[in-house]
Amino acid sequence: MKPSAKEEGYRFVCYLPDGAGAIFENIEECKLERFVKNKNHASWGFSFNKTDWEFAESATYANCPHCLNDVFKSDLAEYSYVCYVCNENFYDYEVYE
Known about the structure:
three-stranded antiparallel β-sheet; 0% helix; mainly beta; 97 residues; five-stranded antiparallel β-sheet
């Protein structure tokens, strides 16, 4: 059985729309990280709400102009960043660095 998110030093922030995973805060580093559901149970991760999660990506050092949370690199070519908390994409000049 995998350790819990709390045992690994993570705090749940929010689930992402369309099954894109969940955001957890790495408490020690004060950094947001995206995790995805882990179906094979072989890789590193932790358990939260009876689901195994594995690391997907860390947030950048830029911040959302709306909620001030860390943003991630956007997977849409026309945008640079995405805030998973607000569910909105941003150009380079729109975020706080």
